[in-house]
Amino acid sequence: MLAEISLFGALAPSLLIYFVVALGLSIALGLLAGRLGFDRLAWHPLLARFGLFLCLFSTLALFC
Fold first, then answer.
1. Measured distance CA(27)–CA(32) in Å, rounded
2. pLDDT at 1
3. Is 13 helix (H, G, I), strand (E, B) or coil?
4. Does residue 14 come out as left (phi exceeding 0), alpha (psi in the -120 to 50 range) or beta?
5. Which residues have C-beta within 8 Å of that of residue 38, sequence separation ≥ 6?
6. What's the pLDDT at 62?
7. Please, how many CA atoms are within 13 Å of residue 31, restricted to the half-sphere of its CB?
8. Which of 21, 25, 26, 23 is nearest to 48 (CA)?
9. What is the chain's pLDDT, residue by residue, as a tens digit (64 residues)?
10. Residue 54 to residue 40: CA distance in whole angstroms
């Protein structure tokens, strides 16, 4: 169930927290994929990174 989380006295929706976590994870995994050369395998690297973000965000939102 989605709930609000208190951050420094202000209520924030839990989806905001999931968004920030997914954004951090996708940036870290995107940089790792770039260093390992997986970006060269994608037709459009930015589209692949956006898809990675969407997968991470939807997984967090559904299972947390």
1. 9
2. 53
3. strand
4. alpha
5. none
6. 92
7. 5
8. 26
9. 568 888 888 888 989 989 999 999 999 999 999 999 998 899 999 999 999 999 999 999 999 7
10. 20
- What is the token pair recorded at 27? 């940036």
From CA 26, how far away is CA 32, in angstroms rounded? 10
Beta-carbon contacts of 18 under 8 Å, excluding residues fewer than 6 positions away, are: 57, 60, 61, 64
In terms of phi and psi (left: phi > 0; alpha: psi -120 to 50; beta: otherwise), the region of 37 is left
Question: What is the amino acid identity at position 2?
Answer: L
What is the C-alpha separation between 23 and 8, in angstroms, rounded?
21
Q: 13 with 4: CB under 8 angstroms? A: yes
Sign of the alpha-carbon torsion through 42, 45, 51, 54: positive
The two structure tokens encoding residue 29: 């995994």
- Output the pTM of the full model: 0.85
